[in-house]
């Protein structure tokens, strides 16, 4: 705070002590930086911000469009649905390579009547598979009470369920 003794008596203006010289230099530097560097960056900042906003909107529109939310349709969806409608069940485990191969035959159709038998830690079997007395993977159970163990051909499944194989 300035005291009365710190004022020039002729025009009553404060006398700037030497310690204020650093402040004046700093203030001048900040104004110069603001004028020469920050002002041109303001327009760049707004362009970048606008660009980010446009990208966010495009991503939102793409993710919420009707075509992207529809489930992917495979050529085997109808066949897999027919097998499910015939009462067949495909028991497997996510870590089982033969089960993965069996799913690939159906082009990973979501209509496949798949029942997961493994717990997340791979140390136990789910209760539904224990109740079904599944002892190996893959296992196929059918409505007539028969069971087929191991990976099956699409032709064998079509014959067992009376479903028509898709023609590709």
Structure, described:
The chain has 168 residues and is α+β, with helices and mostly antiparallel strands. The chain has 2 domains: 4-68; 77-161, Glutaredoxin (3-Layer(aba) Sandwich), CATH 3.40.30. It has 6 helices and 6 strands. A 4-stranded mixed beta sheet has the order 4-3-5-6, with no helix packed on it. The chain has a two-stranded antiparallel sheet with strand order 1-2. It is elongated, with a radius of gyration of 37 Å. The N and C termini lie far apart (90 Å).
What is this structure, in a nutshell?
With 168 residues, the protein is α+β, with helices and mostly antiparallel strands. It is elongated.
- What spatial form do the alpha-carbon principal axes imply? elongated
Give the percentage of residues in beta strands: 5-15%
Tell me the CATH architecture of the largest domain.
Answer: 3-Layer(aba) Sandwich
- Order of SSEs, N→C? EEHHHEHEHEEH
Overall mean confidence score, pLDDT: 81
Low-confidence stretches: 1-8
Biggest sheet strand order reads 4-3-5-6
Q: Return the structural class.
A: alpha+beta
| Name of the level-1 CATH class of the largest domain | Alpha Beta
Q: What number of domains?
A: 2
Number of strands: 6
What's the tally of helices? 6
Cα distance, first to last residue?
90 Å
CATH homologous superfamily placement of the largest domain: Glutaredoxin
**How large, in whole angstroms, is the Cα Rg?**
37 Å
According to CATH, the fold-level topology of the largest domain is Glutaredoxin
> Could you give a short account of the major beta sheet?
4 strands, mixed
């Amino acid at each position: 705070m300035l005291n009365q003794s710190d004022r020039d008596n002729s025009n009553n203006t404060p006398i700037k002590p030497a310690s204020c010289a650093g402040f004046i230099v700093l203030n001048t530097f900040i104004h110069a930086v603001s004028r020469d560097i920050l002002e041109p960056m303001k327009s760049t900042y707004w362009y970048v911000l606008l660009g980010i906003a446009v990208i966010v909107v495009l991503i939102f529109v793409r993710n919420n469009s009707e075509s992207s939310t529809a489930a992917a349709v495979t050529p085997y969806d109808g066949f897999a649905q027919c097998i499910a409608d015939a009462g067949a069940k495909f028991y497997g485990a996510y870590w089982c390579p033969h089960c993965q191969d069996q799913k690939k035959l159906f082009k990973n159709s979501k209509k496949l009547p798949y029942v997961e038998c493994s717990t997340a830690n791979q140390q136990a079997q789910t209760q539904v598979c224990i109740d079904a007395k599944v002892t190996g993977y893959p296992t196929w159970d059918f409505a007539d009470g028969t069971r087929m163990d191991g990976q099956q051909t699409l032709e064998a499944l079509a014959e067992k369920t009376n479903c028509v194989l898709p023609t590709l």
